[in-house]
């Protein structure tokens, strides 16, 4: 049938609207059947008629089914809308934020879970309605008219749903904001109320106390200052109380669900605040009255403290000074202490007058307390000093004054004795010190000057030594005076620059110098006699040594000695000078003594014995044998020298040795340091 319709339209060239398609279909079908009637037999026509009826009935049944389905879906959707709109239009507020948030969650579940399927149903219903209407037009059926109120185009119910939904959401948000504000105000009220109640707890009991009745003036003033601080604190809390009342008022205006409890709590806070104000005023008046009553006693206590403390310190200082251990070392120092003590004694009458004035103040305090029957202690809150302490310390001062007089006088006598010891020691030390110095200079001059024969120098030095030994009595006497000074614990002496240690060192140095100088002259005499040096040569050696002794201390350093040798014609290399220095300065002290200089000069200029000469002499005594016997030594040499050689000669172990043979060659080499024997 569709084919026939299309064929008709294609060849007829008709351009009808889609809504006329059903009618064209019937007309074309009628025409077609009329054309075909002539060519189709009767059986075929019956079958065709039956098919047409079936198809028409099937289309009609399907359309009726779609109509019933539409009616059912539209009824269910409208029923859901009717149930939902009252829920969305319910504006009954909840009392708590939690309940309102639950409503908001339910609404959000509705928007997320319940409504989206209904929106799909509405859309599907519109699609079904349009499809049904199209099929009816195609099948040349009249348009479908749903029951009243179930038209898809009738959007009143859905619009009311949308409107209720929008209004419900706005109401929820506004209500949540209102409850949030209420909860914030309620929490703020609770916090401020709790803070105020915590602060006010126990304040009434404190204000009702009568602790000032038995308090001292200092304590009353402290209580008054504390009360003033409390009043400042009370005034500062006025603003909090007003804030609490204002918040309670706002909660009432916003219809807070727990406004009854809020009002009750606020009323209690305001009532307590009024009581605190009344009690605060009464306590201030009582404290001020008590303060005025104790002021007189306090002034007396303060006056006592101001005068007793300095006086007590003065007495303590006086006792310390009177008992102070003093250490003086001169008459001037002890005289200064005596003068200071006399000045102190002159102040005692004035101090006694001050003591009596202080006692009068304390007596006045006790009189006032007894007269007014005041329930406070007579002890002074400003001072720890008591009258008993002042009396005891004053008596102690009077006892220590004469004791101090006696000790100062004894020390003055001791210092006079010490001064005599100083002067006595200084007189002797000032004489002995220069005498020792002069003798040292004389000995030094005699040791470096050319004064003639060595024997004359020796005699002069012996005379010096004799005079020095005879002077020992003066040193011993000075030692005795020094012992007395030490026993008297005298450590300084302004009358002399000499100490006993200086004198001892100088005396020991003088004895050492004279002994060393005599020994040097004796050594020079022995050297002269042993080497055959004339007195003129000795004088020349002394003149040369003195010339190059730049420091004039009886010693030449290495450079002075080198210059002396060069002036005498020596051609010195470093090795040769080092060899000479090992002879004149074997210990490496860096100086050359006059004796070492003479030994070197005599070794260089005089005819001296050598190891070879001594070996040749022993060979003669041994009858040309390479060894010598003990009997031969005893026969040829003095007994002591023979015994010296026998004791020190090593045994001979060379060719032709016999028992008891002694090696005179090794012995002779050892005498001149040419072997390790």
TrEMBL record:
Location(s) in or outside the cell: Cytoplasm, Myofibril, Sarcomere, Z line
Superkingdom classification of source: Eukaryota
Any one GO MF annotation of this record: calcium ion binding
Ranges where the EF-hand domain occurs: 536-571, 572-607
Keyword Calcium tagged: yes
InterPro entries tied to this protein: EF-hand-dom_pair, EF-hand_Ca_insen, EF_hand_dom, Spectrin/alpha-actinin, Spectrin_repeat
Coiled coil: 56-83, 220-254, 454-488
One of the record's GO cellular component terms: Z disc
UniProt keyword terms in alphabetical order: Actin-binding, Calcium, Coiled coil, Metal-binding, Repeat
Protein name: F-actin cross-linking protein
Organism: Oryctolagus cuniculus (Rabbit)
């Amino acid at each position: 049938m569709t084919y026939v319709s299309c064929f008709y339209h294609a060849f007829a060239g008709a351009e009808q609207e889609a809504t006329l398609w059903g009618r064209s279909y019937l007309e074309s079908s009628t025409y077609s059947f009329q054309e075909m009637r002539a060519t189709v037999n009767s059986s075929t026509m019956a079958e065709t008629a039956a098919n047409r009826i079936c198809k028409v009935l099937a289309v009609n049944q399907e359309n009726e089914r779609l109509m019933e389905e539409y009616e059912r879906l539209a009824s269910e959707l409208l029923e859901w809308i009717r149930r939902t709109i009252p829920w969305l239009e319910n504006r009954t507020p909840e009392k708590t934020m939690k309940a309102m948030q639950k409503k908001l969650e339910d609404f959000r579940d509705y928007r997320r879970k319940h409504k989206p399927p209904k929106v799909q149903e509405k859309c599907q219903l519109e699609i079904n309605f349009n499809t049904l209407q199209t099929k009816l037009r195609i099948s040349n059926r009249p348009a479908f008219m749903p029951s009243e109120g179930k038209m898809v185009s009738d959007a009143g119910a859905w619009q009311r749903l949308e409107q209720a939904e929008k209004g419900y959401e706005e109401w929820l948000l506004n209500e949540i904001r209102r409850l949030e504000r209420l909860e914030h105000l309620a929490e703020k009220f609770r916090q401020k109320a709790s803070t105020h109640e915590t602060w006010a707890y126990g304040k009434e009991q404190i204000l009702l106390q009568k602790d000032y009745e038995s308090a001292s003036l200092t304590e009353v003033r402290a209580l008054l200052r504390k009360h003033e601080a409390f009043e400042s604190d009370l005034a500062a809390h006025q603003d909090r109380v007003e804030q609490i009342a204002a918040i309670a008022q706002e909660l009432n205006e916003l219809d807070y669900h727990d406004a009854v409890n809020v009002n009750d709590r606020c009323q209690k806070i305001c009532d307590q605040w009024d009581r605190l104000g009344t009690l605060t005023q009464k306590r201030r008046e009582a404290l001020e009255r008590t303060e005025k009553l104790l002021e007189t006693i306090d002034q007396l206590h303060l006056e006592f403290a101001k005068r007793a403390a300095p006086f007590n310190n003065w007495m303590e200082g006086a006792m310390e000074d009177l008992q102070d251990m003093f250490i003086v070392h001169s008459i001037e120092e002890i005289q200064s202490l005596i003068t200071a003590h006399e000045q102190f004694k002159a102040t005692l009458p004035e101090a006694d007058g001050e003591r009596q004035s202080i006692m009068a103040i304390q007596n006045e305090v006790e009189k006032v307390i007894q007269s007014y029957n005041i329930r406070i202690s007579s002890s002074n809150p400003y001072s720890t000093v008591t009258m008993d302490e002042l009396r005891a310390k004053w008596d102690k001062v009077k006892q220590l004054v004469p004791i101090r007089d006696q000790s100062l006088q004894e020390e003055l006598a001791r210092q006079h004795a010490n001064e005599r010891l100083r002067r006595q020691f200084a007189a002797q030390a000032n004489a002995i010190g220069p005498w020792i110095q002069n003798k040292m200079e004389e000995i030094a001059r005699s040791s470096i000057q050319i004064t003639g024969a060595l024997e004359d120098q020796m005699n002069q030095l012996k005379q010096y030594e004799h005079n020095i030994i005879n002077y020992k009595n003066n040193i011993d006497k000075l030692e005795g005076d020094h012992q007395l000074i030490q026993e008297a614990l005298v450590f300084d002496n302004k009358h002399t620059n000499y100490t006993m240690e200086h004198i001892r060192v100088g005396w020991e140095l003088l004895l050492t110098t004279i002994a060393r100088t005599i020994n040097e002259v004796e050594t020079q005499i022995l050297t002269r006699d042993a080497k055959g040096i004339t007195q003129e040569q000795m004088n020349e050696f002394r003149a040369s040594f003195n010339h190059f002794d730049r420091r004039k201390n009886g010693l030449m350093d290495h450079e002075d000695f080198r210059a002396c040798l060069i002036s005498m014609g020596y051609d010195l290399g470093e090795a040769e000078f080092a060899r000479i220095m090992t002879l004149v300065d074997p210990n490496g002290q860096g100086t050359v003594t006059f004796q070492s200089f003479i030994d070197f000069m005599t070794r260089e200029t005089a005819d001296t014995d050598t190891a070879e000469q001594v070996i040749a002499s022993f060979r003669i005594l041994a009858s040309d044998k390479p060894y010598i016997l003990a009997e031969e030594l005893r026969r040829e040499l003095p007994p002591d020298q023979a015994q010296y050689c026998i004791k020190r000669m090593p045994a001979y172990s060379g060719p032709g040795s016999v028992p008891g043979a002694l090696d005179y060659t090794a012995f002779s080499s050892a005498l001149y340091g040419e072997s390790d024997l």
